[in-house]
Specification:
Layout (H helix, E strand, L loop, with lengths): L10 H4 L18 E3 L2 E3 L12 E2 L1 E5 L2 E4 L4 E3 L3 H4 L8 H12 L13 H12 L7 E5 L2 H19 L7 E5 L8 H6 L3 H4 L10 E4 L4 H4 L6 H19 L4 E6 L2 E2 L6 E2 L4 H11 L3 E6 L22 E4 L1 H4 L6 E5 L1 H8 L15 H16 L2 H20 L5 E7 L2 E6 L15 H9 L9 E4 L8 E5 L7 H23 L2
Parallel strand pairs: 8-9, 8-10, 10-13, 13-14
Antiparallel strand pairs: 1-2, 2-3, 4-5, 5-6, 7-15, 11-12, 14-15, 16-17, 17-19, 18-19
GO molecular function: pyridoxal phosphate binding; transaminase activity
Keywords: Pyridoxal phosphate, Transferase
Family: Belongs to the class-III pyridoxal-phosphate-dependent aminotransferase family.
Length: 490
């Protein structure tokens, strides 16, 4: 279907606000308000208290079935989470089996559980034995919080008076929502309300964003050399003996919209860190566990980190689970010192979490889904470029595997972003999720400097087909053409 054949729809105009009064149930309780298949919650502190959301009744594969009768193609796996799609019966069976034992939760302070150890062994095997241990927790933010503490403890174990107190991270990054994880992030708008609470020992260097930073005609090696020089300068500014480590996303997700590091970058950054005895830490919460066409994003160039966080694709949304992968260097420091990690969380290493994640990872392996991610990712890139590379408002199409972003610009030649007040990324999302398109697209803002810039992310399930990819690309093209045609008429 061509863009011109699609009826113009604007979510801002077509969805009426939900009435302030709820629906009273027979027992006197107040329910969520539902109008035209949309709901405004009455008791939940939702993401947006002024907005109503479509009500989902069930899911199957890549599809979500809504209360208003529509069927939505989930082209983003939620927030790059549902890597197997929805309603996988094998995972349900694995969860049911652990529930039937009566021990979905065990206090990790006192007990061990075979399914937890089995998952950790499988995860370490997936690194080819290049990592040594796994710390299991409930979310990506919690994993980053744990990694920050563990990184500091490595140096404290050797010398309680250590001067290693500084972290170096990057602008245009997002590492989570806890105070520690947010402090590591380089996204100004997300940091702003909590700036007085954030650690002052986190220092930033620029991102690795070839679209906006590479000079005309500049080679990968020259670009990487500039980045390495910048990181070295930051070490020298702080004092190399004061730096704990450097943190980076191999492919930047929500903050920048699937910006991959250029070849050679990760190795160059690791070499600077190791030259000064600091840790090289990778955040793969969004980009890891198969999302980028290798099980771990670092395996694309075999640049092994000292610490690594993973999350979303680990449990595929079937349980809240995330992890920190830990190198032998870090583990041996603990073994030769206190023998313990001075950190803990109530819901770490839960058997039900492990059972779900283990089954997800077995399915990914048995069905060669990482291979499918690589194949279908190349096809998605081809389809997106053939339809949108020449669009005057699509500045960049970038990504890896099934993790792709489109950055929108007002002027393609100058790369000038749109006025943030236009809410371009949200308009694209709202149009996509509405009839007749009925497809998810994950919006993001602050792409240029944390305040200006719009992008959307596509991150479908690992088991998508070529037909699915063609549908995603065509709907994306139709939505983009319609949104910018309407913007041009304002």
């Amino acid at each position: 279907m061509s863009p011109s054949a699609l009826t113009d729809l604007d979510q801002h105009d077509r969805v009426p606000a939900a009435p302030s009064n709820g629906v009273h149930l027979p027992n006197g309780h107040l329910s969520t308000t539902v109008l035209n298949g949309h709901a405004r919650t009455a008791f939940l502190l939702d993401r947006n208290l002024h907005k109503s959301f479509p009500v989902v009744e069930r899911g199957s594969g890549s599809y979500l079935y809504l209360k208003d009768g529509r069927v939505i193609f989930d082209a983003t796996s939620g927030a790059a989470v549902s890597c197997l799609g929805h309603g996988n019966k094998r995972v349900f069976k694995a969860i049911s089996a652990i529930l039937s034992t009566g021990i979905p939760y065990l206090a990790s302070t006192f007990w061990a559980c075979e399914v937890v150890e089995e998952l950790c062994k499988k995860l370490i095997d997936g690194t080819g034995g290049k990592m040594a241990r796994v710390y299991l927790t409930g979310s990506g933010s919690e994993a980053m919080e744990a990694a920050i503490k563990l990184a500091r403890q490595v140096f404290y174990e050797n010398d309680p008076a250590t001067r290693r107190v500084n972290f170096i991270t990057r602008e245009g990054s997002y590492h989570g929502n806890t105070i520690g994880a947010l402090a590591m992030s380089g996204h100004p708008v997300r940091r702003a309300p909590y700036e007085p609470f954030l650690m002052d020992n986190v220092h930033h260097v620029s991102a690795c964003n070839a679209y906006r930073q590479r000079a005309d005609g500049e080679s990968d090696s020259s670009f990487v050399a500039r980045k390495a020089t910048e990181l070295e300068a930051k070490f020298q500014e702080l004092g190399p003996e004061t730096v704990i480590g450097f943190v980076a996303e191999p492919v930047v997700g929500a903050a920048l919209g699937c910006v991959p590091s250029v070849p050679g970058y990760l190795k160059a950054m690791r070499d600077v860190c190791h030259k000064h005895g600091a840790l090289f830490i990778l955040d793969e919460v969004m980009s890891g566990m198969g999302r980028c066409g290798t099980l771990h994003a670092w395996q694309n160039e075999d640049v092994v980190p000292d610490l690594q966080t993973v999350g979303k694709g680990l449990g595929g949304g079937y349980q809240p689970v995330a992890a920190v992968f830990i190198s032998s260097r870090v583990v041996n420091t603990l073994l030769n010192g206190s023998g313990q990690f001075v950190h803990g969380q109530t819901y770490q290493g839960m058997p039900v979490q492990a059972a779900a994640a283990l089954e997800v990872q077995r399915i990914v392996e048995e069905e060669n889904l990482v291979g499918n991610v690589k194949r279908q990712g190349l096809y998605l890139e081809k389809c997106l470029r053939s339809r949108l590379a020449d669009h005057p408002n699509v500045g960049d199409i970038r990504g890896r595997g099934l993790f792709w972003g489109l950055e929108f610009v007002k002027d393609k030649a100058t790369k000038e972003p749109f006025d943030p007040r236009l809410g371009v990324a949200q308009r694209v999302h709202d149009t996509a999720i509405s009839a007749p398109f009925n497809m998810t697209m994950y919006p993001g803002t602050g792409t240029v400097d944390g305040f200006r810039g719009d992008h959307v992310i596509l991150a479908p399930a690992y088991n998508v087909t070529e037909e699915d990819i063609e549908h995603i690309a065509q709907v994306t093209s139709n939505v983009v053409h319609q949104v910018f045609r309407k913007l041009g008429s304002l």
